[in-house]
Each structure stands twice: as C-alpha cells, then as structure tokens.
Amino acid sequence: MNQTERLYRIDQLIHQRTVVPFDDLLRELEISRATLKRDVAYMRDRLNAPIVYDRDRGGYCFAPSPLGPQYGLPGLWFNDREVLALLTMHRMLEDLDTGGLLGPHIQPLIARLKALLGTASDSVDEIMKRVRVIAAQNRPVAPNCFEVVGSALVSRRRIEIAYFTRSRNARGLRELSPQRLVHYRNAWYLDAWCHRTDSLRAFALDAIEQARLVDRRARDVSLAEVDRQLGSGYGIYRGRRLAWAILRFSADAARWVRAEIWHPKQQSRDLDDGRFELRVPFGATPELEMDILRHGEQVEVIAPASLRQRIADRLAQAQAPYR
Predict the structure, then answer these.
(1) Tens digit of each residue's pLDDT (9 = 90 or more) over 242-261
(2) Which of 48, 219, 276, 323 is the most exposed place for a label (fewest CB within 10 A)?
C-alpha cells in the first residue's frame, strides 16, 4: 500500500468510526509506528486535515470546526515527478500569460502543489528558476481587456470594442459575439462573430483599445463551423478559399524545415537531389509570405504562380534600399 492509499484509508477509517485507536490503524495499514506517525503528520501539516489524538477516547479523530467541515482529501493525486512537471508548466505559463488572465486563478493551486512536495520544496524553487521561456516579439494585452473578453466568453454575452485595424491604419467600433480565445505565435486573438460585417473574424487582442460587456446574448456559432471558416488555412487570418502552396527548400535548409510543422494538414517529401518539398494550404497570404521570406534564397515557390510572383516582387523590393 503506497502513501496515497494509506492516507485515503486513514481518512476513511476515521470518518467511518469517528475515533480510531493507534493500534487499530497499525493493524489495518500494516505499517510501522514511525510510518503511521509520518502519515498523520503529513495529513495534518500538508493537507490541513484537523486530525488530533483524543486521549480521553483513546484514538485519532477529526476535530470539529466552528465553521463546519473545511477539510477533504483532493480527488486527484500526483507523485513528486508529476507535481514538478505541473510546476514546470506553470513556470512556462507565467512567461506566456503576459495579460494576467490565468495567473491569479492558478496561483492557489500552485501553492498547494508546492505543499504536496513537502521536503522537496528546494527542488521546486530550483526548477522554477531553471525553466525559462523567451516570448520573442510578444505583444502585451491590457489585463482589463482579458477580463472583459474572458467574462463574455464564460457568460456568453456580447462585447463592444474600439478596434485598431493596423492593415488600414483605421479605428472603429464593433460589436462582437466571442467564440474562443487563441494563443498564436506569442499573441492572443479572439475568434468572434462580428455583428457589423455579419461574419466570423479573428481579432488581435492587443489591437483592442477599449472593451465593455454588452447586455445582449452572444450569437453562438459551433466550434466546428469556427474551425471550418477560420481554422483550415495557413496562419491566423486564414480566409475561406484555400489554395496549396508548393515550396522547395535547399538541402541545407531542409535539415531544419523537415522538423517543422507549418500546418496540421501539410504534405511533404524528400527530393532526389537532397531538397525538401513542403505543401501547405492557405487562404490569405501575409503570414505565409513572411515565413517564406525568412528563408531567403534557401526556398523557391513552385506554385501557385500568383504567390511565386508575389515573393519575387517582395524580394526585388527588399533589394532596392541596398542598391
């Protein structure tokens, strides 16, 4: 019987019998006196169990609380490795959650996980220092924006936003029915039904300058439909009408690109001359163009012709300042 099973058994016996003698616990658990004392101390110190030894009644019992029952064993248990893994993920979340949407709500759980590790707390502090996530080109979001959007998602209400459309250098008001939050390339986006355009759109949260809840029920769109319209092409602004880009990378670039996932439905093959061919579906082109251009002369666009010409034009424009 491992420690987790013993703790549950101690809890069960005391709840069933009200008072359980020390020797009865020893016989039931088949452990040493020292181990039983450690288990009881763990329940008291780490799990906040109000377990006491009543000398008059000759056994262990739970002390009554003036506020009523405040203790209960958690329904999910982790060993030390699993707790450390959860804390590592929390460290990563701290670096990604620049808007503060999740951190305050998760902090009480983290404190409890640290307590569960007991004497391994030094390892906790060490691993928290040894994990680092660098959020390159991160675009912070105002905490109040996260709060409004998060509240609207949960309560299924609409929001009104003042939005800055960078591509047109224009500002305007929009009423949205939020569908889901998306974290993509170190930035947060909101997939929402836009009541001004009567269509599904993706909005960058860092471009929302003001947001407020509207006392109207949000329009619900199935997540399958959201995926169909916004989740099939390349990048965050995907478009509905998809085409396939065929890209060929040099043998040198192939060593890196071969290990990359550009799109969940991508297709790829190795060519006889050592090059690597990648096919990805796309709708709108801006993000795909940027990913192609970062490989410079190491990639050639084979199809479609419109994308090939677009990349050629942008490479020519990039040369102009250096002539």
Answers:
(1) 889 999 999 999 999 999 98
(2) 323
- Residue 203 β-bridge partners: 190
pLDDT tens for each residue of 186-226: 788 999 999 999 999 999 999 999 999 999 999 999 988 98
Asked whether the CA dihedral 246, 249, 253, 254 is positive or negative, the reply is positive
State whether residue 174 is helix, strand or coil. strand
Task: List, in order, residues 6 or more apart from 203 with CB less than 8 Å away.
Answer: 161, 163, 174, 176, 189, 190, 192
Whether the Cβ atoms of residue 215 and residue 160 lie closer than 8 Å to each other: no
Check if the beta carbon of residue 95 is closer than 8 Å to that of residue 56.
Answer: no
Average pLDDT of the chain, as a whole number: 83
**CA 160, chain centre distance (Å):** 26
Instruction: Give the integer Cα–Cα distance in Å for 160 and 111.
Output: 36
126 token code pair? 């060490």
Contacts of 231 (CB under 8 A, 6+ apart): 238
**DSSP 3-state of 101:** coil
CA dihedral 235, 236, 240, 245 (to 10 degrees): -10
Q: How far apart are the first and last CA of the chain?
A: 77
